[in-house]
Amino acid sequence: MKKAATDLTTTSAAKPTIHPTIHVDARIAVGMFFTLTGTILSAFGLSTRDRMDLYTKSLGIDANLWWGLALLVFGIAMLAFGRRGQIKMDKAGK
Amino acid sequence: MPILASSDWLILLIYCFFVLSAGLSLASAMTGSREYLQAGRKLPGWLCGLALLGASMGSLEVLGMGAAGAEYGLTSMGLFALGSIPAMLFAALVLVPVFYGAASAPGAPVRSIPEYLGLRFDQKTRALNAVLFLGVALFSAGISLYAMARVIAALRVFDTVAGRLSLPPAGALLLSMALPAVLVLAYVLLGGLAAAMYNQLLQFCVLVAGLLPVALLGLKRAGGWSGMKAAVPPGLLHGAAHPGTHPLGMVGLVLGVGIILGGSTWCTDFRLLQTAMAAKNAASARRAPLVAAALRIFVPLLLILPGLLALGLPTPRTTIVIHNENGAIYHEITIVPPAVEAGQGMVQAKADAATGQPVKGADGQPVLDYAMAMPNMLLQFLPSGLLGLGLAALLACLMSGVAASLTASNTVFACDIYQAFLKKDASDKQILKAGRWAALGGMILAFAAACAAMRSNDLLDAVVLVFAVVNAPLFATLLLGALWKRATGHGAFAGLIAGVAAALLHHGIALPRGEQPGIHGGWIAVLHHPASDMALGLGTAVFAFVVSLLVTATVSLSTKPRPEKDLIGLVRSPEPARAAWWKRPETIAAAVILLAAIAVNLIFL
Fold first, then answer.
1. Quick one: which of B22, B72, B192, B409 could link to B198 by a disulfide (CB 3.0–4.6 Å)?
2. How do residues A56-80 score in pLDDT, each as one tens digit?
3. Structure-model confidence comparison of residues B274 and B461, the more confident one
């Protein structure tokens, strides 16, 4: 959570104030959100793997772990695309 | 019983933090009115498309889709596709390029639909549409705020918080309306349309991430697709592939749902079109509805399917212990409230607020609370942890819909009321300021509408009516304005007025069976009985559209036409420099999307 907060402030600080336009690639925030929640969910799922009482709802599947991992992959992919888009956008801005 | 574990709260709070931070990180870019009201017209097409999709999935739509799945079954999947895909493709290919390209002066592109009407027709049409739009947008924002807050309160999310603050019994409901409202207001005030659209992207992703596991687990629980077909009542499985059985008939469906309802949503509603109009160039603007349509094909699988599955699951049953003491029989009810037990599958009956007993309809059967189909499935299948994400998904659709109404209405207020009529020489800074004040005022009005809906549940049904009364005539006017050079300002104004009057008249003389005259119709005299509220809304929209079309055309033909040189860029004209229409990428993309939509519906129905 702390990491996300610092990342956000650096993106907004790095934004050139001379251009009065919107200069943040939207995918970065999405990527950060899903990387963070994916990590939390899969860590939570991993630590509660043996607690079947928790997962009777999800038919005995450790849904937190597996869905968390899927979201983590999605988040990292979005971060990667977002970074690339941001670099392109910064170049075009200069 | 608090249903949220601390892991759920953590995820919910992280989500709220990200939503707010989008506003914070964009606040410094809000230097002028174009940045604030139109996101600088700098956004890429894919983002506009996803924001368009996010804006179109407000709480009423999402709850409505789950409810339709439970109430009408697979038919509703075909209906939703019919009601959106063709209209979105038409918007992409025909109308959005006209709206996006229209400009009052070089470098001063049109900012809103009323402003387009002002340029194409005249100021009175603009003012009429702006006022009607503000009313509709804020009213439906309030209703959708209430509709989702009601669900969140029913899930007892804020009960512990309300208890700790020792609020009155309605406190949890008020909290679940006020907290999202404040959050939306904060990021809209800070980052304007850009923040709203960035969040609509995030919100769409969260919606998929939170609800897809429900659909998958629900299917697995039912034993796959064939298991589901065996579990749900067979009446719900007839798809749109058998339209002959539908009470409205094939022609009525295609005309009413496909053209008029779809068109008045996707081709005229500024809450949706504002996202396309924020694109960085015409090609991106055109791409936005195409991107949205391509993804929209799969949305019913995500939202309608869980509603349908909810009906096929076993109903939670109460264990009733019967004592017989001295001849008196005592029923001791444990575990399940009666309204849940009277329901079907995981869809409970509507409960009487005073007694908690299930509400009975005219036929003596309990009235099912279909809007709870989707939320109940969340509780049923998501373990703590994922449940937080599922609730974030419900909050996400609430916020994206309300934010779309708020940003659209502050643009319309700042451009088409403030700058056009109140202060014609307003500086850019003043317009920006007016926009922010309008967002604040709009949220207060929307919240008032939500509180009114809390007192009278009938207002929930009024949304369909308001939509038919305002948007259907507007679709006719915009269609003629964008495609027909001969349409005139007097014609458009007369057409809009006549359309609204016709819609009200039709609503006044028709009453669905089993309803009381009033908000459900029939307040003038009951002359005919449509099959349902939905059929009444559809009939009203069709009637309003046709009347508006005819009146606009007739009055236009009898008034003086505008010189053609004034209409350059305002009416669609052939683009000579480009390839033949069937060779253009957007036409090919549209054809592929249409075929894919048909294929998906044929496979699943």
1. B22
2. 777 878 888 899 999 999 999 999 9
3. B274
pLDDT tens, B484-528?
A: 889 999 999 999 999 999 999 998 888 887 777 777 777 888 887
Contact B35 A20 (CB under 8 A): yes
In a domain, B28, yes or no: no
What is the tens place of the pLDDT at every residue in B122-165?
999 999 999 999 999 999 999 999 988 888 888 888 877 777 87
Clarify whether residues B482 and B600 are in a common domain.
Answer: no
Same domain, yes or no: B92 and B180: yes
Cα-Cα-Cα-Cα torsion B464, B466, B472, B474, nearest 10 degrees, comes to -150
φ/ψ of residue B329, rounded to 5: -100, 125
**Do B589 and B464 sit in the same domain of this protein?**
no
Distance from CA of A5 to the nearest CA of B (A): 9
Q: Two tokens at B102? A: 């229209």
Question: What phi and psi values does residue B306 have, to the nearest 5 degrees?
Answer: -60, -35
Domain ranges of chain A: 26-93
**Mean pLDDT for the stretch of residues B241-269:** 71
Find the angle CA(A80)-CA(A82)-CA(A84) to the nearest 5 degrees. 70
In tens digits, chain A (94 residues) has pLDDT values of: 344 444 444 444 443 334 445 777 889 999 999 999 999 999 998 888 877 777 877 787 888 889 999 999 999 999 999 999 888 888 877 6
Residues B286, B181 within the same domain: yes
Whether A69 contacts chain B with CB within 8 A: no
Residue B26: inside a domain, yes or no? no
Q: Are B559 and B601 contained in the same domain?
A: no
ipTM at complex level: 0.86
Q: Residue B517: its pLDDT value, please?
A: 79
Using CB atoms, which residue from A5, A59, A74 is nearest to B217? Answer: A59
In a domain, B291, yes or no: yes
Residue B27 lies in a domain: no
User: Last residue of a domain, which of B331, B353, B374?
Assistant: B374
Chain A residues close to B198, C-beta within 8 Å: 24, 26, 29
* C-alpha closest to that of B73 among B348, B360, B347: B347
Report the gap between the CA of A90 and the closest CA in chain B (Å): 14
Which of A17, A29, A54 lies nearest to residue B22, judging by beta carbons? A29
Are residues B396 and B540 part of one domain? no
Closest CA to B92 of B590, B604, B591: B590
CB B544 within 8 A of CB B473: yes
Report the phi/psi class of residue B567: left, alpha or beta, with left for phi > 0 and alpha for psi in -120 to 50.
alpha
Residue B395 in this model has a pLDDT that exceeds 60: yes
Decide if B428 touches A, using CB distance below 8 A: no
Are B192 and B269 found together in one domain? Answer: yes
pLDDT score recorded for residue B56 = 92
Chain B, window 27-46: residues with a beta carbon less than 8 angstroms from a chain A beta carbon: 28-29, 31-32, 35, 39-40, 42-43
Enumerate the residues of chain A whose CB falls inside 8 A of the CB of residue B31. 20
Q: Whole domain around residue B581: which residue ranges?
A: 1-20+60-314+383-455+576-605
Q: For position A5, what pLDDT does the model report?
A: 43
Nearest to B29 among A22, A33, A55 (CB): A22
Residues on chain A touching B7 (C-beta within 8 angstroms)? 40, 44
Burial of B512 (0-12, 13-18, 19+ CB in 10 A): middle
pLDDT in tens, B194-229: 999 999 999 999 999 999 999 998 888 888 888 887
Q: Are residues B255 and B222 in the same domain?
A: yes
Contact between residue B209 and residue A71 where contact means Cβ atoms under 8 Å apart: yes
Q: Is B35 within 8 Å of A34 when comparing Cβ atoms?
A: no
| pLDDT above 80 (res B534) | no
Is B217 within 8 Å of chain A by CB? yes
* CATH (domain of B588): 1.20.1730.10
Under an 8 A CB cutoff, do A59 and B220 touch? yes
Total domains in the fold of chain B:
3
B264 and B545 Cβ atoms separated by less than 8 Å: yes
Q: What is the pTM of this model?
A: 0.87
Yes or no, beta carbons of A63 and B382 under 8 Å apart: yes
